[in-house]
Structure formats: structure tokens, C-alpha cells
Amino acid sequence: MTAMLVNLTVHGIGAPERPLAPGEEATWVRVDQFDRVLDAVADRPDVRLTFDDGNSSDVEIALPRLVERGLRAEFFLLAGRIGSPGSVDEAGIEKLLAAGMSIGSHGWAHRDWRRLSEGEVGEELTRAPEALARQTGEPVRRVAIPFGSYDRTVLRRLRGTGVQRVYTSDGGLAREQDWLQARTSLSHDLDAVWISDVLGGSPGVRRKTRRAAAKLVKRFRG
């Protein structure tokens, strides 16, 4: 029987320490909301935790709480933001690795990968993971797509770079063995009902139908 997973994405926790882009606040959560999610998944081996954007809250708020609960997570960093105000720095990367966390690439500058210039393609898909590999001391072969924006061209380019796993923002369940992994982002208004819905993997027929249709469009457009 195929193992199914719930992949969750955290973007930011608590008060942001940098200016947010328009709409970005929708994926920031309060500390108490984050604690509630961690408590709900602490005994759920079918739940995977991922973090996007490399915000300083990854190290300052999330890391000690993960360690306290014996949880592991994968952190997808923006290579071009390392050390910037409000972002994870080199010391933070060392802390994540020392605690048993994994590092992946979220690209260089949080660009839409469907709208990259030729020069930006190399920076986002090749230079970024190489820079992170120098920071971590090991190859970086997993990526999370910014904005969840992809098409056939993006997927073809990623396969060409040899990445082992690609994370999206499509929502819903994922099969453990799949190269393309759907994730659900934490939202600013999450509550007990949201947690039950997402972790239960049963969002209702209409939402599942919309998700399936959106995935098909993304995979074959472009």
C-alpha cells in the first residue's frame, strides 16, 4: 500500500524582522498557532515539516521548539538572502545542521520560476543550490518552488539539474515516493478546524477536485 504524507510549509512565525512583500503576511503565524501545529504533529510520522524563505524565525522561534519535541524539518533557504536583516545567517545554518535539520534550496531571490530570464534561470536553479552546498558542506538536491508557480518548462529544467525532490504548494496529500511533492502552507488564520482538516487529509470533494485540476494545469502548461 502506498504511504501517504502530509507536507506542511511554514513561512514565518511571530513578528517579522523585515518588510514583507504584499500578501506575504497571509502565511505568517503567531507563536501560539505554531505551537498548536507542532503539538498536533508530534506523534504523526506521516507529517513532514518544511520551512520556506529562510526567515530568522526559523532559527530563533522554530528550532528550539522542534528540538524540544524531538522533531525534524527541512529548511528551504533563499541563497541570496543569507545574512540579510530578518533572514537566516551562516551561524543560523550551522545551528540548524547541528540540530539534525536538513537544508534545501528555495532559489536565489524569491522569483517566479515561470518568468525567469535566461540569466536568472542559472542563478535560481544552479547557483543557489551550489552556494547553499558550500554553506552546508554537502550537496543540496531538494528544492521548494517559490510561490508554488511551475509549469512543464520549470519541471523540465529541474529534472535537468538532477534534483532529487521538488516541493510545491499544491495542498493535499503526497505519496512518499513521488519526485513532485504537494504541500500545504500554514496560514495566518489557522485554528483547530484547519489543523483537523489538513491533518485529516479529507478536505472535501470540491476542494480535492479543485486541487487536482490545478495540479494538472500546472504540470502541462507552458
In summary, what is this structure?
With 222 residues, this protein is of the alpha/beta class. 39% of the residues lie in helices and 17% in strands. Strands 1, 4, 5, 6, 9 and 11 form a six-stranded mixed β-sheet that branches.
Structure in words:
36% of the residues are buried. This protein has helices at residues 31-41, 57-69, 90-98, 118-136, 152-161, 192-200, 205-220; strands spanning 4-10, 12-13, 28-29, 47-52, 73-77, 102-105, 142-144, 165-167, 174-175, 180-181, 184-185. Helix 1 (31-41) runs parallel beside helix 2 (57-69). It is globular and about 45 Å long. By secondary structure, it is an alpha/beta fold. The model is unreliable at 204-218 (pLDDT under 50). It has one domain: Alpha-Beta Barrel (TIM Barrel). Strands 1, 4, 5, 6, 9 and 11 form a 6-stranded mixed β-sheet that branches.
Global morphology: globular
CATH topology category name: TIM Barrel
Estimate the helix proportion, in percent. 25-40%
By CATH, the architecture is named Alpha-Beta Barrel
Mean pLDDT over all positions: 92
Question: Can you tell me the number of structural domains?
Answer: 1
User: Which sequence of SSEs, written as H and E, runs from N to C?
Assistant: EEEHEHEHEHEHEEEEHH
Radius of gyration: 17 Å
The CATH class designation is Alpha Beta
Which superfamily, in CATH terms, is the homologous superfamily? Answer: Glycoside hydrolase/deacetylase
Indicate the proportion of strand residues.
15-25%
Protein structure class: alpha/beta
Alpha plus pi helix count: 7
* Euclidean distance between termini CA atoms: 34 Å
- Low-pLDDT stretches are 204-218
